[in-house]
Design a protein that fits this description.
Length: 232
């Protein structure tokens, strides 16, 4: 009898629910093209968005911990809530927690200490990710940064494994780059160390170039044949 009443109640509510859905979709922009996928912000709800898939319009909702602004794609067109500017749109940030994850989707420190790793939660499952070499995780910016940007919380010398000298010989190659002297990483043509305000930072040349330990400059790989086995 209870199940029968529940079914009747749901059937009675069905027209109302459909009318609410239809009313909500009335505020959606038309699909611009019958082919392709397009996502648009809901005018009132930062947790929701309109999705056009090959001309079919649907109302979608972001997973817990995510919001929609059209600029992120952490999961299903949605971005981390702290990266989204909702404006006048309302956002429900009630956490749905699981072990290791405050929200079902989010980024979190791996520990209370300075760390080169962090936790990335997806669907409520925590996974440990690594910052690029020489960087540490900053819980405030939700990003990996140079350790000297988190002084005194982090010790750059411990992270990079290098202690910057107080001065360098005036005629040395490093002196040419003062006050940001450069130093090679032994056995590694792909990276270099530069000192900023006395703190070491581990860098790469970029643009497909390698670091020359003699001139302390970034050069094309064909100028450094002894670095042929280094990964760019």
């Amino acid at each position: 009898m209870i199940e029968h009443r529940r079914s009747v109640t749901l059937l009675a509510l069905l027209p109302f629910l459909l009318s609410v859905e239809a009313t909500t979709l009335l505020g959606a922009p038309p699909c611009p093209d019958p082919h392709g996928v397009f996502a648009y912000a809901h005018p009132e709800n930062c947790n929701a968005f309109f999705l056009c898939t090959n001309g079919t319009l649907t109302l979608e909702y972001c997973e817990n911990g995510l919001l929609f602004d059209g600029h992120g794609a952490v999961h299903d067109h949605c971005n981390y809530h702290w990266a989204v500017h909702c404006g006048d749109r309302k956002a429900d940030l009630t956490p749905i927690s699981s072990p290791g994850c405050k929200y079902q989707f989010g980024l979190y420190p791996a520990s209370d200490a300075c760390s080169t790793t962090y936790i990335r939660c997806a669907h409520g499952h925590p996974n440990e990710d690594h910052c690029d070499a020489g960087l540490v995780y900053d819980a405030k910016s939700h990003n990996c940064v140079w350790p000297d940007q988190l002084l005194p919380y982090c010790n750059p010398e411990e992270i990079v494994g290098f202690k910057c000298p107080h001065k360098v010989p005036s005629h040395s190659a490093a002196a040419k780059f003062w006050p940001y002297p450069r130093f090679p990483v032994p056995g590694d043509c792909g990276r270099l160390i530069t000192c900023v305000d006395g703190n070491p930072r581990l860098l790469t040349c970029g643009d497909g170039k390698l670091f020359d330990s003699v001139s302390l400059s970034c050069l094309d790989p064909d100028e450094l044949p002894h670095c042929a086995n280094n990964n760019l």
